[in-house]
Amino acid sequence: MEGNVIVEKTKHFADRIVKMQQYLVGKKEKNVDMIRQVVKSGTSIGANVAEGQFAQSKADFFAKHTIALKEANETKFWLERLYSGGYLSEKEFNSIYTDNIEIIKILTSITKTVKGKANE
């Protein structure tokens, strides 16, 4: 799905999440559970978007993108916890958090559009 903005952004975001995990583990951060959670939710966003590209119906497409949006919101929560806990510097946090918020906005738009078309 080359050229599909949300597909490309979520792939790139998943790569960044994995690199952040490697960085934090390399720093010997102790809160592995929190790091594991952000990796699970952060990579799940793209996985659900990818599945949605081959949805069997509009309802399936909507469901996959709704799950991706939920995962993006969970990722936002964990990124905020990593920042408030001092695991990420302000610069590190702002860099990845901005991408997360942009993905949330795009997924919100997609799900609202699909839902709106279903109600027509």
Give a topology summary.
Blueprint: H1 5-26, H2 32-52, H3 58-84, H4 90-118
Describe, in plain words, how this protein is organized in 3D.
This protein has helices at residues 5-26, 32-52, 58-84, 90-118. With 120 residues, it is an all-alpha fold. Helix 1 (5-26) runs antiparallel to helix 2 (32-52), helix 1 (5-26) packs antiparallel against helix 4 (90-118) and helix 3 (58-84) packs antiparallel against helix 4 (90-118). The chain is elongated, with a radius of gyration of 15 Å.
**Gross geometry:** elongated
Number of helices: 4
Structural class: mainly alpha
**Relative strand content:** under 5%
What is the CA–CA distance across the termini?
28 Å
Mean pLDDT reading: 93
Helix content: over 70%
Pattern of helices and strands: HHHH
**Uncertain stretches of 5 or more adjacent residues:** none
Largest sheet, in brief, is:
none
In short:
The protein is an all-alpha fold. Helices cover 82% and strands 0% of the residues.
Provide tags for this entry.
120 residues, mainly alpha, 4 helices, elongated
